[in-house]
Amino acid sequence: MKFTLRTRLALLYGALVALTTGGFAVVAYYTVSNELYANLDASLVRAGSSLLAVIEREQDEAKQPLAPVKKNRRKESGEDVFAFLQRSSLRDFVGPIPVPDSVIDQPQDPVWTAVYEHVLLNSSTYLLQVRSPSGEVVWRSDNLLTDSLPRLESVLPMGPGSADRMTTWISIRGTSYRLTVVKDARAEVAAAYPVAEVDFMLRRLFSLLLYSIPFLIVVSIGAGWFLARRALRPVDHIAKAARRITAERLSERLPAPVSNDEIGRLTDILNDMIARLERSFEQVRQFTADASHELKTPLAILMGEIEVALRDPKINDDARITLESCLEEVVRLTHVVQGLLDLSRAESGQLQLEHKPVNITSMLDDLCEDIGILAERKSITVTSSIQRGLMVSGDSVRLHQAILNVLENALKYTNPSGSVDVKLYAEFSNVHLKVTDTGIGIEPHLLSKIYDRFYRVDQARSQDIQGTGLGLSIVRWIIEMHGGTITAESTVNVGTTFTITLPRSV
């Protein structure tokens, strides 16, 4: 399937936008994903480190000297350094104590801290657990129920970490959690948070990208098509103007765009080329006119001398045959020269046509009577159907010349015992003349060439049919100068139909 340049540019623009937005979507998705999980890990580390700092503070306070009575009471009650955890709430351990950036290996972003600690992280889903240096679980958050979070030694083989901290994935009761274990000499704290909320945000981002990218692609293709159409509009104008420029209208020029861009420079180059072609055609026309004019006099003299020689009773039969053959060639050459001269004058505007009322019905009656005599010699039947009283406006001499040429061609290319049908009728505001023969026909791909100068189909050449190859060129010029058209339909070995259409004159 072939696409126009406008469509190809629009599709290319859409493909570039698709690649760009697709690449941006992939980078954005993975960047946001990494940022979300990185900040989740930072929040978990911050929570665990905060709880370790609380434990350290409580242990330090426990080591301070107390009054003898109070000290003995604490010892007697068996209260240890982890007992305070039973009296505290979970929210007390989610960032109440500032943690140095060195503990979490990255600066604390206040925006992300607010997002995670006040929106995403909440006490109902935030799991915390404290182990003693011996590995015994001394405290766990209520939402852990009877489950326990892994120890640091058990998760170290699962991924990169250090001797005092590790972050990994775990599953509790079918729910995926992100786990961080922080340890020092006094305690080991494990903090976990379900990743469902983060995954939900990522799924929403993925859906947004998934539905927005096709929309952007469609919009970009539409915008690309519109921009390409707007950018190529001068090309369409140039193409339409170029179609109007023919060998007869080389004086016209392509419209130059207002902007001096690539299309403007191309238009200037094409106009220069048309100007050179116009000069070349003008030189050819001038040469043809001059040559034809110069040849008319010698040919006329030669024709007269041959005719005089043929009247001499003293020449023998062989000489007479030779002179008659020479006379035929001179007459044919005279017709060629006259045809070239007429075409040269017509193309240069020197040949003017009259525009007077012409009774085409009477003209065609006379022409059919004339060609009927020629048809009898070849045993060709001529039939006619001529509508009465039809008038056209034009030059009667040139119209007679054009119609006679078409009728003569019909007889010329029709085999003996064939037929030629002539039909003249009016339809709306036009007059139609159809000449149909049962001749040798013309191949379809050659129909567009029959109006070219000196062109004759190969079948006509093989049958030695006389002709100059200029007749239909002159016929088309005459018809077009009268505001009409001439068309041909043909089937090989069946026949040809020429249709001449002229504006009707009331």
Largest sheet: 5 strands, antiparallel
Mean pLDDT: 79
What is the strand arrangement across the widest sheet? Answer: 2-1-5-4-3
Rounded Rg = 52 Å
How many individual domains? 3
The helix tally amounts to 12
Structural class: alpha+beta
Could you spell the SSE succession in H and E letters?
A: HHHHEEHEEEHHHEHEEHEEHHEE
**Strand residue percentage:** 15-25%
Q: Report the count of strand segments.
A: 12
- As residue ranges, the low-confidence spans are 66-79, 90-104, 459-464
Principal-axes geometry comes out as rod-shaped
N-end to C-end Cα span? 51 Å
Please identify the oligomeric state.
single chain
Helix content: 40-55%
Task: Describe it.
This protein has 506 residues and is an alpha+beta fold. The protein folds into 3 domains: 201 residues, no CATH class; 87 residues, Signal transduction histidine kinase, dimerisation/phosphotransfer (DHp) domain (Helix Hairpins, Orthogonal Bundle), CATH 1.10.287; 148 residues, Histidine kinase-like ATPase, C-terminal domain (Heat Shock Protein 90, 2-Layer Sandwich). It contains 12 helices and 12 strands. A 5-stranded antiparallel beta sheet has the order 2-1-5-4-3. A 5-stranded mixed beta sheet has the order 7-9-10-12-11, with helices on one face. The longest helix has 59 residues. It starts with a helix and ends with a strand.
